[in-house]
C-alpha cells in the first residue's frame, strides 16, 4: 500500500495504479469537492484527483489584491457555508474574502468531510474500453465506472496571436500571471479587456499610481449597492441565481455571457470606467490589431457604445430591484440613478504607439480556453465544449461540473455549485443502482 499526501498533512491510504473505483472525480476545487461531498453523503466510493493542491488556482493564478465579488454569505458549499467556516461568529457575511481566505475556506471544506483526495495527481488521458473508463494519471492508471470532470473552465491562458507583433522590449503578462504593480518595469501599462479581471487589475494599477491605458470590451457592469443593499443580494432575493438555463430564450448565448464587473475590494464598491478616465486613465475601444511593421496598436471606434452598454445593464438591474421593491412593498428608500461623470470626445484615439506613449507593459485580460485534449471520448461540440444537459454529457457515465452557466448563473460559483453537485450525485447513484439490479 502507498499513501498519497492530502492537505494539512493528512495521509490518504491507498494507491491509484491498477485500482478500480466506482467514481473518479477529476479536479479538487470547489466543484470537485462539492461532488465528493454529495457522493460521500450517499456512501458512494470514489476518489478525487487534484493536479496541484486544493486552492491552487486561487492561490497561484490571482493577483495579490484579489477578492470575491459576491458577498461571503453566498459561499454555500454543501454542508459548509461561510458561517460554518468562520464558526465563532467572527466572519463578515456581507464582506468579500481575499484570496488567502478563499484558499483556507476550500481546504477547510475538504477537511470537514475527510474527502478521499489525492493531491499532486495529473490526469493525462481518459478513454473507455467497453468495460469501464480508463484513466491514465501521473501516478498510474486506474479504472472507473463513472467519471466527473470538475477541472474548471479556466485552463489555458488565452492571448491573441497578434501579441507577438508588439515591440520586443514590452513586457507581456496574462492576467493569471499578474501579481502587483511592482512586478512590472517602470512606465505606462496597457490593460486589454474589461471583464472582471481587466477592470480590477486596471484599478489595482491605477491605485498604485501607474498610468494605465485600458482597451475596453462589451462586458456589462453592476452597481455594488443600490437602495441600501448589495446588488448581488438583491439578485439573490429576486431569484436570479436560481433561474435555470431553460428559462432563457437563447441558451447558447446565455451560456457564454461575460460576468458583470464590480469589486469587493476595501469592503466593496462600483467599478466605473468613466471615473477612471476622469481621473487620468486613458480609455480606448476594443483592441483590433497590432501593426506588424511598426508595433502600433489599433482599436475599434466603439468606446462610447461599450461604456453606454455597460451602464445600460447596470441600470436595467436597478429596474429589476425597483420592481421587486414595489411588488413587495419593501422599506428601501429610492435613490438617484447614475449620471455619467465622463464622456469620450470625438477625438478619442483609435491607435496607440506603445514606444511613443512610454508603454512598457501589457496585461492581457483576455480569458482562458478549455483543454479537454486528454479526454479521448466523443463528448464535445465543434468548439470543444462538453455536450451536456445539467452536467450529464452525451457519453453515459461521464459528467461535467463547475462550468459557468452549467444550469444557473451560480453554477460556476460558490453559490450554486452545490445544487449542481447534488443533481449529478443523484444521477450517479441511480446509475449504480441500475448496474446492481442488472
TrEMBL record:
Alphabetic keyword roster: Oxidoreductase
Source organism of the structure: Spongisporangium articulatum
Highest rank taxon of the organism: Bacteria
InterPro entries membership: Auxin_biosynth/cation_transpt, CHP04046_FMN-dependent, FAD/NAD-bd_sf
Matching Pfam families: Pyr_redox_3
Protein's name according to its UniProt entry: MSMEG_0569 family flavin-dependent oxidoreductase
